[in-house]
Structures are given as structure tokens and as C-alpha cells.
Amino acid sequence: MKKGIANYQIGDTFDHFLLIKTASKSVASNGKPFLSFLLSDQTGEIDAKLWEASNEDEKAFQQGELVKVSGEVGQFRNKPQLKIHSIRPSQPTDGVFPSDFIEKAPVEKEELMEKITEAIFEMKNPKIQRITRHLVKQHQEALLSYPAAVRNHHEYVSGLAHHIVSMLRLAKQIIELYPELNKDLLYAGVILHDLGKLRELSNAASPSYTTEGKLIGHIPLMMEEIRMAAEQLQIEGEEVTALQHMVLSHHGKLEWGSPRPPLIREAEVLHHIDMLDARMNMLNRALDKVGPGEFTEKIFPMEQRAFYKPTFED
Amino acid sequence: MKKGIANYQIGDTFDHFLLIKTASKSVASNGKPFLSFLLSDQTGEIDAKLWEASNEDEKAFQQGELVKVSGEVGQFRNKPQLKIHSIRPSQPTDGVFPSDFIEKAPVEKEELMEKITEAIFEMKNPKIQRITRHLVKQHQEALLSYPAAVRNHHEYVSGLAHHIVSMLRLAKQIIELYPELNKDLLYAGVILHDLGKLRELSNAASPSYTTEGKLIGHIPLMMEEIRMAAEQLQIEGEEVTALQHMVLSHHGKLEWGSPRPPLIREAEVLHHIDMLDARMNMLNRALDKVGPGEFTEKIFPMEQRAFYKPTFED
Amino acid sequence: MKKGIANYQIGDTFDHFLLIKTASKSVASNGKPFLSFLLSDQTGEIDAKLWEASNEDEKAFQQGELVKVSGEVGQFRNKPQLKIHSIRPSQPTDGVFPSDFIEKAPVEKEELMEKITEAIFEMKNPKIQRITRHLVKQHQEALLSYPAAVRNHHEYVSGLAHHIVSMLRLAKQIIELYPELNKDLLYAGVILHDLGKLRELSNAASPSYTTEGKLIGHIPLMMEEIRMAAEQLQIEGEEVTALQHMVLSHHGKLEWGSPRPPLIREAEVLHHIDMLDARMNMLNRALDKVGPGEFTEKIFPMEQRAFYKPTFED
Amino acid sequence: MKKGIANYQIGDTFDHFLLIKTASKSVASNGKPFLSFLLSDQTGEIDAKLWEASNEDEKAFQQGELVKVSGEVGQFRNKPQLKIHSIRPSQPTDGVFPSDFIEKAPVEKEELMEKITEAIFEMKNPKIQRITRHLVKQHQEALLSYPAAVRNHHEYVSGLAHHIVSMLRLAKQIIELYPELNKDLLYAGVILHDLGKLRELSNAASPSYTTEGKLIGHIPLMMEEIRMAAEQLQIEGEEVTALQHMVLSHHGKLEWGSPRPPLIREAEVLHHIDMLDARMNMLNRALDKVGPGEFTEKIFPMEQRAFYKPTFED
Amino acid sequence: MKKGIANYQIGDTFDHFLLIKTASKSVASNGKPFLSFLLSDQTGEIDAKLWEASNEDEKAFQQGELVKVSGEVGQFRNKPQLKIHSIRPSQPTDGVFPSDFIEKAPVEKEELMEKITEAIFEMKNPKIQRITRHLVKQHQEALLSYPAAVRNHHEYVSGLAHHIVSMLRLAKQIIELYPELNKDLLYAGVILHDLGKLRELSNAASPSYTTEGKLIGHIPLMMEEIRMAAEQLQIEGEEVTALQHMVLSHHGKLEWGSPRPPLIREAEVLHHIDMLDARMNMLNRALDKVGPGEFTEKIFPMEQRAFYKPTFED
Amino acid sequence: MKKGIANYQIGDTFDHFLLIKTASKSVASNGKPFLSFLLSDQTGEIDAKLWEASNEDEKAFQQGELVKVSGEVGQFRNKPQLKIHSIRPSQPTDGVFPSDFIEKAPVEKEELMEKITEAIFEMKNPKIQRITRHLVKQHQEALLSYPAAVRNHHEYVSGLAHHIVSMLRLAKQIIELYPELNKDLLYAGVILHDLGKLRELSNAASPSYTTEGKLIGHIPLMMEEIRMAAEQLQIEGEEVTALQHMVLSHHGKLEWGSPRPPLIREAEVLHHIDMLDARMNMLNRALDKVGPGEFTEKIFPMEQRAFYKPTFED
């Protein structure tokens, strides 16, 4: 048996557990209903069809269910598709758990938390430090489990914390190269910039946008959180405005959703670090799927470019 | 003596009081210092030069001073310019006051406040009503004296309240035509949409941008104010999010500074009412300066268009 | 039996009359021909398939035919689709008429005409009044039956007149708020601005673009109509140019098809009224299809935004 | 004495006749009035100043006057400027005429008219031929004297006819290379495309925009002319629509003022011919002013490019 | 038997040779594999399906194979589709050759070469002439067989040479009209501008992009070729830079892939000639497929416009 | 005496040596010629006027001359301007040298060269290493003295090498964080990406664009250099193409002058490193000129933003 759905090929037979990520019912051209699934494990996803599905099937096989599936890997519109021969819900006795079928950051939560704590500990400006610590503590559990985005980059459990920690490492190095940077402001910006996603998205495992997320968005939501933290901690002063500005401006341009572009040196750097780490994450995941001498799929948020993996080595 | 600087022409002699709106020192090509002023009364403004100015002149004639000026109206680069023969600070015995030399809304503050209060009184949803009333009360004095903008439209004392009241009348009529609109939400949006300018701008009479105004901007500042009002009034619920969305989205597009475009029907209407009233204000002021058969100056925020005043009547 | 196709759901059985809006023949993957229909009544539309269709079927069931259909409502690509069990052309004895199956404005033609006539009657400038009356009279029948557009807004029988009358009400209110506006010019602009669509579109019930409509467009076509009306009525003067400008500029921007942007105050207002009424019509129709707490489908001509219907009331 | 103002250099003394193209009065920093002129002859233009000008000077030296000037060629902001020592109006006995001081096309009017007549004569489709001949005859005098534009390209007397004839030659060659083109339609498009400028501009010698030109523009004005010509000649049919489309679409894009892009093959070609000939005219005039190995000034309507004149020959 | 696949209609029976342009395997909804082909002859292309295909079929029927096919012309998604009844590889004894099934320029290679040689022969500047001749000679075979593009225009065997020769004819005429143009530079630009495609594309018959083509592109590749030719011929001087500039700038704008816009007069003309000839080729091919009074399909690289074929003649 | 022109204020008397960066002659409104200078030392620049200049003055005081100047610092259009009382060319006996009056990188050439050599030494891929070493050696002298740009960032002597070394440090750190990056390719890209400027610009001290620089640009010029180096070293393979791609794509977008966007992971990173280091250099230099609580001047190449220097410390 192969390890993980990502390693199966057209023509292979499959017989293992998978998690139902999405499920929908349609009617075939012969008038019979069928179910379309997106099934996943930690290695990847596959489309699947259950033909001539009954009403019971529809009720049994819904989003979030863990199922035992056997079938054959075919192809539809140039993508692999699993034709299901048999399918059943998982049993307690199967000893499998949904959390084992969800992609996670390659680093443990404890380690991620430790790195964030270290960065806060290094801060010297007490106002910046207290606001940052307060907000991290308040949202700690969600912060350690949420993805950084619904799709595109770091879109896995603990993805947000993974992104933050990766950016902190970048920030640390850049501060060494450009010592004129204010470390406290930059570290705080890195840690807080996307925390608004904890209100923008509904949950960590299969996140969707909340009403608040759609109508307000994570950037203004986080700005508000900083203000309320400052109120609660009775902190006043330009540090609050500067922290809010870091968050507000981190998308870099008005048309990308920042109501102000970066107007403080550290805000400019934050925008670049965010972009660089997000793009490295996307690029690495796309390049992992191809061999030397091949081009990746078009990467939508990178202007739909397809990247090349060279054939030579360094 | 003519009434108001706006009525003087090239060649006229001038001898009256004016307010110094801006003052700056330069050095002429003959090496002698001179002062450049922008002088104003309620009817308008004029550039002025005081040649061979002494250090005492520089100290005496600063922004905000009321001065008695005599001189001759000349022309420089197609614009009138006052060549100053004599100038002196106003004396208490002159019986003139700076507030008489500043442009104001054509409606009194009391009447403006009454109209806003009426609109709040008409609201039925208690959450929307309480938040709106709270914020108006909290900022009442500034709200009644601030301009709606530093330049472009309603850029005079009480301009913001004048703009709000004019928009309320528009909103009232539009609600009659489209009764499906939620009156409370639309009225509250009209009243609150630009209140953030009270923090974005420094003062009512000769406003400039605050640091907070430049780094955050009036839209996110007002969103924050709504949240804090709700906290203080212990109000929760979708009304708060909806009010915040009204404010956030009223510029209509991301590239115009709204981090979200209008996504609620009343937010879409608010954007149109705001634009229409601002444009009518700009257009009327520009058309007042030209005669039938003439084109106005290019109006910068209206895509630099020059508008035509027809020669026929209705 | 349910009232209207819009009220049927997946799984329902249908047995009633419908109008064929479009019909086309294809070949199924089993090599057999089938017919695809878009069927409608006054409440809405549904896709439908007639499998294994004969040549006689193809001839009998064409666009514009009224048919009796029985079948089952299924689903295809997330949209309802009617699987036809039996279908026959309507008979005179059925007592049904195509005009009963077409969506219409919610106001009668007579009332619409009355409102337009009233507006013309109010005009004081005889040149503007005579040109407007002449063009309305000349095109009266089509004006009262055409839609305002092929899709997007007011896309139903009498939609154009409905749009005009709604805009006239808006114009009336706006003139009261801004009395400096020239009522005659604005009313005439409202009435004439889209009359060119009577030449741009082929007919009222199932309109498509004419060659003239595609090569010239309704804006220049209407400009030409105004000139010819003026010639016929032997009217000269700036009023003719101003009326032409109102029509030419009402799309607001060159890239939206207006060869001139609005350069007269009333033309600017006309553009805003047109946009506001069109958007309210689109928004209302989209929001009618969803419940509180839901988002509409993406509205294509409103920058693809999905709008939210709040859960609270005023 | 040098031939023509274009051949004078900084430091030269000037003593000859020039035409006043523009005149305006200003006040110098010493408080004394002076007159600023733009003076021209057939070879070019020069800025000039008459210091300490009297009221009599102001009346005597107005736009359109021919004057005898002596002075010295200096420099102001990197441009030559004539410092006037003495100036007087020309006398009948001077034997000089304003028309000798205006730039003209390098081809005589008679020859231009002949070429246009030839092209009309070659047409076979009687509808296209009659409409074209009618409009040329109707506007013949203006057509032969107007410039093609106020500035940028062919901005001299007879410039429009010069541009048309040059485009006719291009059209003739292109038809030979692509014989599938409809010669009648293309020739008519070339001849008619800019005739609307005869209404858009006020006169041939020192043209400015008419009110009609500003509010409607030459493209819709010409479309109207074609319709009225067709009415008068009682011509109907697709030819009229096609001719109108040629004119409407010749700017190529909506944002360049064409309410429709080219949708007929000949309209596409017309757009390219127009652009190529206009650009060659601009390029040649700019390159004539520089030597080998130099770059021209930035050419505004060619995306502000500065062009290089190579040092080698063919 | 009809001549060429382009002349077959829905319902026709087909029994003839065709070339496999593309082949791919899929699985039908009944779980059985099938092959999808794009088959072609010199007159055009058709989609085709071979249902229930065996592994042998998959191996036998690959891209580039010539096959004998019998089947019936059906329809799928509004496009003709050939349902294959029987198919076999062509035999030597069939006397058919792949080259007879590929679309070619309507002019013979010898004639194309002759025209290019003539143009080189006319050049007077020895540096330009030698570099051009060298590069043509070096790439002669590919130059005469490559298409001008993978799709859009001149996308057939010898398309590049056909495009060059057509542009040379245009250039010749334009030089006659504007004799100030440097013929050598323009001719050389026409001949060399797209030669980089010989490295950008993999081969002449069914071209795809090379890695070098994707990572560098034909414009910089050709710039490099000119430099290397100059090195080899020991030619120095501005002519080399000018030739490189002609190639670099011929797409006209940075966003269209030219790292410099045209900055030499002949480069500007080259860009226009290239665009005009490419567009005439696209337009003619699209208009050939429709009748008078019809619109073409949307032409993607011409801003998706659909062109109209008028009903009248010249 | 103050140290350096940057430290003088309005009203100060100046008496020291300065370098003439630019010189031009004009005529004053009194008809007398004067000379305008841009004078500089290592700390900055100042505009200066020499009134009533003689022909001898014009010849003596040209660009590149070192002069002794005494005068007074005045103000013109809000900028300091030196009114020259006396001026003379420097004498050998003055013991001053032009090179002491030019801004330089804050690091010595030897140290910069060492860092570049180290990076080359670290490379493992012999093809990449040899090409990079070859090009650095070939251009070593210019590489160590040229600025990175004519203006905007690193616009001082040795600016290019300073920029490269700063980017190498960034690259080193980023490779540690993302070890999947190919170090050789990234280092080579950093070192080579702007070497084309050595041909684009005329010289190190007061650089202007060469004809080749204007017509071709540094990006294609460097691509050519890589090819020629490979030819000379007889190196073939994908490494050459990849190096060329690094250079070609480093501006990131077609509209910024890269004919290809980054399509290799290291090219994407190179673009970000280049942008980050250039922006830090611009930001630091602008922020150095203002105090806490102030905004910088608008920084043109950073979208004209004015940056804020916070008042708090970390």
C-alpha cells in the first residue's frame, strides 16, 4: 500500500481512509443522482465520484466525515479522479482520527509558541511589548492552530504561526543588516499583522469567511483589536498609532486592501518580509510537485506565472 | 469701497482688513527679502507680496493674524496679486474679528444640529440610534465647526455638518423612492461617515492633517470610534458590524481608500449620496465664478473637467 | 400546483405551460441528439433537456413557442434543470398566451406614459419641450414596451419606460434639493438618454442587438435622432447641442462608451441618477432571491460584488 | 539678414516683420506693466517681451497684428526670447501680408483638391461616392484651409487636406497589397474621418475649440453630418451605417474617444493609416530640429518619447 | 467525396486520411477509456473521439501520425466533432504524406527566399547588409519553414517568411511615400525582427515553446544573435546598436515585451507594419469563415472584437 | 567655518571650495547674462547664481571645475540658493582635488571587492562560477567605481559595488532561511544583475546615459555580455540560459523593463532582494534629513510617499 493519496497514479487501485473535505450532489445525464467529493489526507487531495448514490449515502457522507474508500484512480479533464467502488464511514474501532488527515505545519505548536515568546521577550519598548503580549495571550489557542489563509500560502493547520515564525527569522536577519530599524516595531508588526484572520475566518481546520470577515476584513479588525488592547492596558502614545499603521499598511497598496500604504520604515520592511515568505511558501509547494526541467502549474496569486525547475545543481 | 476681496479687479486700489491664511519669506532676485501672503475674507482670497520686508515684518505678519492692508491689485501669472503699499496688525479698537473673515456654511450651526437630531430621532432600531446619538453628542462641538475637507468641497467652517444635513435630505427623498432601504442604517451612515475627520484634521478654522490622520486616516479612525462607542454602551450584534461597514466602504473602491467596497445596499446608496452632494457643492462653487457661455476652471477632483454654463434658461 | 417556475425546487414534479426563450440541438455522448431549452414564465426561468429528440421535435419546439411540459426538476452544475418527460405545443383551447409568460414592469404602460407626459408638460423652455415631445411621440409604442437593456437591469417588457419614470422621480427630488439645476434640461435628458436603444435592439420581447446597434451604438444613434428632430422642427440654438451632450455623456466616461464626459451640471446629475436607479434595480432583484444573513450571487455589472442582506430590522 | 525667425540664435540682433500669435499683459516685479508676445513667421515662433508697455502699446499690439520688430535674441528658461527694442504696426506701404507669416502645408490647395477629387472619382459604389462628394463639396473651402489639429500634427494651414491626401496615398498602396479591402469604403473613410473638425474648430488660421466642439466633439459631429447628407440625397442602406462606423471608430479605442472600436476591416485599416501618417508628420518635424547623434525633444502625443537620429547613412 | 475537412457539415459521413495534431486519453463516465484527437488536413481541423479505445489504439494513434478515418460528423458544444467508426494508420502504399496535410503559406519557399534576397541586395550600407545576409544565410532552412507564431497569425508552415515578405512589400511602399526613411534599416528590421522565433519555438510543423524560448523570449534571443553575427563579421558601429534596437522595440511597448519602445523613426514604422500585416492576416482568415451580414468569432489578440462583413460591394 | 555645504543655513556666509556639477547661462529680466550652477561637496549640493557674468566667466566655470566661492546663502522657491560674491578656479597650490568633493560609498573599494570575491569563491557549479568571475574581472575597475544609478538609490561613487555587497549579505541570510535555494545562481544573479549599467552609463563620477544605454538598456546589454562570456569560455548548458534569465527578469515586471518576469525561484528572490536594498538605501537617506515627528520629502520612486520618523525609541 502506498503512503498517501498524493502518491497514487492513474490506474492504481486505492483502499484506505480519507477525509471528506467537500461533498455535493448532482444528477447524471442518465437522470441518476451521484455524489462528488473532494477527499484528502495529509499528503494531498483527490476528486471522487460515487455514482448512483442513494439518499442514505447523501446523509452519511458529508463534509468532515472520515471514510474508508476503495476504488480506482482514473482521470477527468487532465486531473486524477477516484472512481469509488465502495465507501463506508470510519468506525471508532478503525483507530483513525480526522486530525491525522489534515495538513499541518512542519513545526510543532510548542516550538512555534516558543519562538514568538522569545521575540516578545527581546522587545525593549514596554508599550509595544505589553500590547503584543496581551494580544498573543488573548488569542493564543487560535493563533497556534489557524492557517495563514484559506488558500494560496500556509493554508494548513498552524499555518499562521508558521508564517509568523518564518517572518520573525527573516526580520531578525534584516535588522542585523540594517541596524537602523526599530526591532520592537518590526517584531510586533510581524506577530500582529495577520491576527485579524482569527476573526475573519471561522475556524482552523476547514476555514471559511465570517460575515464580519467579509464586511470588515482582517486588516481593520486587527486595528480595532490593537486599540481595545491599548484601552484595556491604559496605554497611550504614538506607539499605538504606529502599531495600527503597521497592520493597516502591510498589504502595501490601497488596491490590495491597505487603506494606507507603508509610511514608516518598518512598515515598508514588514510588507516585503510578508510578501517574500508567502511567495517562498507558494513557490516551494509548487516546485515540489514537478521534476527538474519541468514548469509548475500557473501560480494564481503570483500573477499566474509557471515557474521552471532547472536541471543543473549548485 | 467694494464688499469683499472677491469683488476687486486688476487695477483697483484696496484699503481694508484681511486675514493672513498663509505667510512665507523669500529672497528677490535683487537679494532683498520679501513676504508672500495668502490673504482672505469671507468672499475669497488673494495672493499678496510685501517687498523689502524687515525681520519685524516677518514676525508681525504670520498665519492667523488679522491685518489692515492698503495696496493695488495687479496680476501675476494670470492671477490677481495685491502689491502691498502699507500693512499693519489690527487693533482691538478696530472692532474686527478673525471669525468674520473666514468662510462659513450658509446655514447656522443651530439649524444644522436640529436637522441631525431630527434624523436620529426618527430611527427605530435602538442599537443604531444609541450608537449614533452617543457619537454625535461626544463630538458635537467639533462636528458643528469642522469643514468636510481641507480642500475640494465644503471646505469652510461648519462644512462637515452642512454636508451631512444636505446628504440627509437626499437620503430622505431616496428612501421614499426606494422604500426597501433601511432608513436607520442609511441615516446613521450619513451622520457618521466622515466623523473620523475630527481626528484626521487638526482644527476647524485652518485645518491640517494630524500624524494620526496621515498614518491611519479618517475611515479606520471612525471604525474604531464605533467599536469603542458600542463597547461603552454595551451594545453587541450585527448592527455594529453594519455601521462599521457603512463607514469603511463609503469611498466606494479600494483604490479610493475604502478597504472594502460597499457590500450592503445602504452602503452603496451612501457612497452615491456622498459623491453627488460633494460634486454638486464643487460644481456650484465653480460655476458661480463664470458667466453664461463660459467654461469653469478645471475641477481637479472631478477628473480635471472644465464645466460649461449654458446661455439659455429653463 | 405551485405558482410559477421560480417556486419549484430540486425533486419537484412539474406539469404546466412555459414559454421557450431559447432552443438548441446537440448530440449526447451516446451519439443521440437532444434539445436544450431555456423555459420561462413571469416568475423566472429554468434550463431543460429533451433527450433523444426527433427531427419533428426540433421543428416543433422553437424559440417563442408556448408549450405544455411535464417533468422532474433535477440539478446540473449547481443549477436547477428540468428533465422533460413529455412536452407538447399549446393549443388555442388551452387559453394561454405568450404575453402572460414574459416578465413585465410592475407598472402599467398607461401610467408610465402619463408620468412622462407630465414631465414634458412641466418644461418651460419651448425648444427643449418640443424636441422631447416630438421624439417621445415618434417612438411612443416602442418606448412603452422595450426593456432598458438586454440583461443586467430593467431587462423586462416596459423596462425602459419604468427606468425613465423612476429616474424622473429621482430628478424631481434632486431639483428640489439643488434648485440651481435646470429642470427642463434634466427632465429631457432623463427621458431621451436611452431612446437610442429602440434602434440598438431588435424588439421588445426577446431583444438582440441590430447591426446598427453593434456598429454605431445607442448613444450616437440618439444624438443623431435629436439632430434630425431639431431639423424637422426647425429648431436651432444651444439647446440642441446641450440635449445632444446630455445623451452623449450619460455613461460618464470615455471607456464606458461616452465620447465626452459630462461637462454640463445637469449632465453630471443625469449620469448619477441613471447609475443609482440601475443599481437599485439590480440590487433589489438580487437581494429578493436571498434571505437575511445571506449573500447574493456576484452581480457582474457591479464589479462582481456579492451583497449581504442584514439580519436586523429598522 | 537671416531668412526666418527659426534661423536666429541667442545673441543675434533681429529687425524684421513678425505676426502676433498671442499677446498678454502682466506686471513686472518692479510694478511696471509689460507685454508678452508669441511672434511668428512661416519658419517658426519666438517668445518676446515688451517692457514698460503703455496702454497704447496694449491696444496696438494684439493677436493677429503684423508688426515690425527690432531687438535682441536672449534666452529665458532654456528657450530663446526676443527682447524688443522697438516695435510698430505694419503699414500698407510695407507690402507685407499676414498670410505670408503663417505656416502652410508644403502642397498647394489646388493639388490637394485634385487628389481628393481623383479618389472620389475612382469609387464604384454610387451611395458611398455620392455621400462623400456631397460632403466634400459642401465643406470644400474650409476643408482646404483648416489644420488637421490645433497642435501635435499637421497643425498648419491646409493641414487637414494635406493629411487626407497623404493618407489616400497610403490607402492606395495598402489596397494593392491587400486587394480584399473595399477601396470605396476606405477612401471615403480617409476623406471624411476628420471633417468634423471643421465644426470642432473655430477657424483655419488660429483655431480654437468651439462650444459644440468641446461638448460634442468632431467624431459625433461628423457622424451626424453623414446622416444628414444621406437624408438630403435620399440614400438608405448599410453603406450609410458603414460610413458612420468608419468615422466613429477611427480613434481605435473607447478611451481615445471612439464610442465603438473598429469592427469592419476597412475601419481597422483606417485607424492604422491615420496613426501612421500623423506619427510620421510629428516625427519628421521633431527630427528636422536635431542633428545626427542627437535625441529630439520629448514628443508628447507619442508617449513622451524622445527619438534618436542615427549618425550613419543608408 | 468532398475536398478537405473544412467543407464537411454536421451529419456528413467522412472517409479519408487526416493527420493527428494532438491526441489524449480520458475515461468516460461509464469508466471506459477513450481517445480525443484533433485531426487536420490542409483545409482545417476537427475534434474527434474514439470511444472504448484499447491500449493498442493509444500507442498506434499518436501526434504526428497520418490515419485513415471513417465516421460521422456530429456536434459537441456548438463545434463539429467527428465520431470515429473506424481508424487505421496510413500505409506506405496509401501514397499519402504528412506534409500534404499541414497548412502552408500560399506562396512557395523559393519565391519567398527570392523576395528576401532582393531586399538584401537593395541595401547600400555594407554593415547592415552583411549582418542581415549572414543571419538569413545561417538560419535559411528554418526561416523558410517556421510559422510566424504558434497561433493567432501566420501560424502555418512558411508563415514567418510569408509574414516577412508581406511586410517587405508594405515597407517598400511606405518608403516611397516617406522617402526620409532609411530603407536599409527598415528592410533589415523587417527581415530580422522575428528570427528569434527559430530559437523560441521547437520546430516548424507542430511548434511548441523551448525552455530558452520561455525563459528568454525571441526578442532578447535575436538581439544576442545580431551581436554574435557582428562579432563574427568583425563589424562595429552604431549600425549594430540600431539593428538591435529595431528588434528589441518592435512590440512597441514595455508591457508587450519590448524592453525599449521604438526610439528611432524606422523602429516606429517597423512596429506599425508588423501590427498591420499580422492583423490583416488574422482578419482575413476570420472573415473568410463568415458570409456577408455576419460577424466573425471574437478575435482574441485583437481585443476580442468580432468583425462585421458588410453586405454591399464596392 | 562649517563642515560641508549641507550644514549651511539661510543667511549664512559661505567661503570655501566647491565642485561645479552643472553650469548653464541665461539672460536676466534686465537683459544681462548670468550663470546658474549646481555646486557640491561630499555632504551635498546647492544651487547658485553668478549675476552679470562675462564671457570669460562662462568659459572658466564649467562642469567638473573645482572653484573657490564666497557668497551668501539665500532662498529661492523654498530651496537654499547661494548668491555668489566672488568666485575663482582652484589652483594647484590650493591643495584640493575634485575626488574629495564627490559623494562615495561608506565602504572602501578593496573591502567591496573582497566580499564579491568571497561570494564567487563559495560557488560550486563551475560554469556559473567561471562566467561570473570572468565578467567581474573584465569589468573590475568600472564595477568598483560606478554608481548603481544616476539618481534615486546608491547614486554615488562605488554605489554599484556597495549595492551588490549589501545584497550579497541579504542573499546569504535568506539562503540560510530557505536552504532549498540554489546559492550559486542567486549569488551570480546578485553580482551580475546591474553590470550592464557599466555600458548604460558614461562614467562613474558624473554619469549620463550613453546612446547604447538609451536605445538598448542595461538589461539586454548584460544578457549579451553573459552570452559572449560563455562563448569565450566555451561554456554551454542551461546555466547560461538561467543566468541570462536572472538578469533579464530582475525588474520583476514587463512594464518595469524586464522582457520576462521571474520564472525561476532564485530570480524571484533576486527581484525582492534588489528592491528591498534599494528601498532601504533611499529610505535611510531621506529619513536622515528629518527629525523625530517629521515626514520626509516625497520619495519619487517609492510611489511619491513621504515617510514618518516616529518620536519613540525601541
From TrEMBL, chains A, B, C, D, E, F:
<dbReference type="InterPro" id="IPR012340">
    <property type="entry name" value="NA-bd_OB-fold"/>
</dbReference>
<dbReference type="Pfam" id="PF01336">
    <property type="entry name" value="tRNA_anti-codon"/>
</dbReference>
<keyword id="KW-0540">Nuclease</keyword>
<keyword id="KW-0378">Hydrolase</keyword>
<dbReference type="InterPro" id="IPR006674">
    <property type="entry name" value="HD_domain"/>
</dbReference>
<dbReference type="GO" id="GO:0031125">
    <property type="term" value="P:rRNA 3'-end processing"/>
</dbReference>
<feature type="domain" description="HD">
    <location>
        <begin position="163"/>
        <end position="279"/>
    </location>
</feature>
<keyword id="KW-0269">Exonuclease</keyword>
<dbReference type="InterPro" id="IPR050798">
    <property type="entry name" value="YhaM_exoribonuc/phosphodiest"/>
</dbReference>
<dbReference type="InterPro" id="IPR003607">
    <property type="entry name" value="HD/PDEase_dom"/>
</dbReference>
<dbReference type="GO" id="GO:0004527">
    <property type="term" value="F:exonuclease activity"/>
</dbReference>
<protein>
    <submittedName>
        <fullName>3'-5' exoribonuclease YhaM</fullName>
    </submittedName>
</protein>
<dbReference type="InterPro" id="IPR004365">
    <property type="entry name" value="NA-bd_OB_tRNA"/>
</dbReference>
<dbReference type="GO" id="GO:0003676">
    <property type="term" value="F:nucleic acid binding"/>
</dbReference>
<dbReference type="Pfam" id="PF01966">
    <property type="entry name" value="HD"/>
</dbReference>
